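Standup notes
- HV: blocked on the assembly model, inputs below
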Amino acid sequence: MSEKNRQWIFLKRPHGLVTEDIFERREEPVGEPGEGEILVKVEFASLDPANRAWMEPVPTYKPPVMPGDVMHSFAIGRVVRSRADGYEAGDIVEGMLGWQDYAVLPASTVRKRNPRHSLEHLLGVLGITGLTAYYGLLEVGRIVAGETVVISAAAGAVGTIAGQIAKLKGCRVIGIAGGARKCAWLTEELGFDVAVDYKSPGFKSELAKAVGSGVHVYFDNVGGEIFEAVIPHLNTYGRIVACGTLTNYNDAEPQPGPRGLQVACVVKRLRMEGFIVLDFAATWDKAEADLASWIEAGLLKPPVDVREGFETLPGNLVGLFNGTNKGKLMVRINSSSGPAQQG
Amino acid sequence: MSEKNRQWIFLKRPHGLVTEDIFERREEPVGEPGEGEILVKVEFASLDPANRAWMEPVPTYKPPVMPGDVMHSFAIGRVVRSRADGYEAGDIVEGMLGWQDYAVLPASTVRKRNPRHSLEHLLGVLGITGLTAYYGLLEVGRIVAGETVVISAAAGAVGTIAGQIAKLKGCRVIGIAGGARKCAWLTEELGFDVAVDYKSPGFKSELAKAVGSGVHVYFDNVGGEIFEAVIPHLNTYGRIVACGTLTNYNDAEPQPGPRGLQVACVVKRLRMEGFIVLDFAATWDKAEADLASWIEAGLLKPPVDVREGFETLPGNLVGLFNGTNKGKLMVRINSSSGPAQQG
């Protein structure tokens, strides 16, 4: 194949915030799949807070990205050529495809997806993002109808889905997001009961007013001061779903945990639990079917924020940490030849 | 009754550390029980880290102690006079009897105890202390034979029992305590596998060496920097039993939580859970029987640190936070007329 493969190379670990200069653009010949491998044309790359965590030299749930690597990324694309049983050209596959036009990788490391849905949905609400919201609330938080649920980074990829799942399960849902525009969007478009702006000078008192008689489940995507502000409102036997720590990912040094957490944990018998969606892989099909059925029934609107073009990848990752996105942020690297069905 | 009732009155909330001058000694006539009440002669008062938490104006699992109150305390004594069905003179009862010679209180607020055991054991290993260790490890931490368990404040009342329960359940047990003398006592007398001195300049590296391949359960009695030091050693799916936060109780302001907890919680899927032993009251009889059987079998040695005399109560509470005790700290206020059997 004479076509070029554009790649973004991870040059060096950031110290603190991600900046565009830690990436370098390169062009390589498109690779050829070996035995058991597939060649995939990448269509959408998912930009996620976890991308920052992968840049630290310590392993997370996967090995870290190393200087010189093509930047790691969950992504979705179509098989161009296959030398693996069970895969053929045109198949939609999702996996760690990276920031590039073409990935060559063992078929065993990707997941074949259902072509009935759009690629945007497969990568977002029906992928890691939606599954994270689903398992975080239902398996870790164990929400019950009538409970009050607070969600931070509520306008983000996971937060928008989590809030709507909590609503359709009969909970009262309070979103925390940055800025009046995002807050209005959460209540007017996505059905959150209340949205509180953490950038407002009156944030703490607005949160206190919003939570009313207390919080049963706090779905934490951010850690830090926002987490700290929620702690006094947690009810006895409250649950903290430790989904992410957006405010910590960019720190060069580990930050102190929220004030008052330990005393509250003992006195209120709180349970704080972390999870990784990969741990629930055995039941992903059921979760995906649930999520798809809620979308079809009009109960779940999956907001997708698609940015265009390979060249925009580094800038959009920087923007993710500045909160520029509403809903699931992804970059379209290449367009599919065949039209994808919506659903 | 013409006898006097000595009392220690809680005068004012401490700002930071407990000091003796927040208490005032007083003598009052001994009270008379009303209908449904009992008059109890207090024999032993339990000194517990939680005493400090009760002094803050926010309710914990019980209402706070208010300036002017007789200082609250778990204690054990014998009924002198009863106007309540089911209670008679000589019965051993445990409850919130307070720092005084005689308590008058509704019989419904105390618990009648089995006279087969000594009062020291009933108040310690067979009371709140032992039950806290028991439920913390077995119900919250869910220890499994072969796992590595780390216990902070290991030479304290709960820690000494928790370490021995973890041992008899087949775990490898590492205690964290202050000073070489306490550490030697833990390994030589109580069977801990290793004890690490948090006052040692090499604490962190000694801890790293002691934990070997990682920690399955951390039984946290202290919070703060010791908790922080354990976090990097927790295994994936590690559990943190949030039993107490000794280092936080004396703080005037809430302290920051341990660094790195939130990131570790997500990446390692940690579960941190608080509990209060009162929540398990339905199965206390079974737990007490287990604990008593382990003592009889020689598998559990309950160390008791008895200080003598009503006058020493304030000073010994101050000492508790300076780590002067080994094992369960209690003050003998009055001696029983009849000899208690050991067991």
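- HV (later): unblocked. Chain B has eleven helices and 15 strands. The longest strand of chain B covers residues 37-46.
- Next: hand off to the docking folks.
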